[in-house]
Amino acid sequence: MAAYIDQPKDAWSSLGGYVYDPKFTEDLLEGQTYKRWAAMGNRYAFTDYSNVYVGYGEEFNNNIAPCHVFYDYQTCC
Q1: What's the confidence (pLDDT) of residue 49?
Q2: Cα distances (Å, whole numbers) of residue 18 to 6, 12, 50
């Protein structure tokens, strides 16, 4: 749950490894997830607590991260 800055040690086994109710968390995250490159396996979430970018591969490293991921609310491209 990187988007909610939760740590695995805070999770409840009775909630399947979630810190909060899984359905509540998934519903909340649905509205806070940016899916432009989801088909490539890249995930982005924007919450009141964090901006999280998880990606891999040449396209992410050479194009998405340097040109589309905001750094201090500015882009490099």
Answers
A1: 79
A2: 9, 6, 18
